[in-house]
Amino acid sequence: xxxxxxxxxxxxxxxxxxxxxxxxxxxxxxxxxxxxxxxxxxxxxxxxxxxxxxxxxxxxxxxxxxxxxxxxxxxxxxxxxxxxxxxxxxxxxxxxxxxxxxxxxxxxxxxxxxxxxxxxxxxxxx
Length: 126
Description:
Helices cover 45% and strands 17% of the residues. The protein is α+β, with helices and mostly antiparallel strands.
């Protein structure tokens, strides 16, 4: 509904500005804590992108003589043992002949807002 003196072009500008703000908030992780549905969808999108990346890499590998597996969980109840659940390996490639193990981790890194946060993001990966 238009307010007195407001044009539909003004409303379009407001809608566009709001859309851009929401998009940027989603991309850099500045969503409010109560935006759980949006956060959940973004998590699902990240999972799909990660799965596609791993699938493309697997399809580009010549499997002859290799052991290839995806989503290998690591913990006390799994084939890859550790005393606590520590996550997973997105892509595991073992070359028995060359005695080499390759491991790929697919991670979505949100853009950092300052140098301190960038350092903290990188420290999580080490």
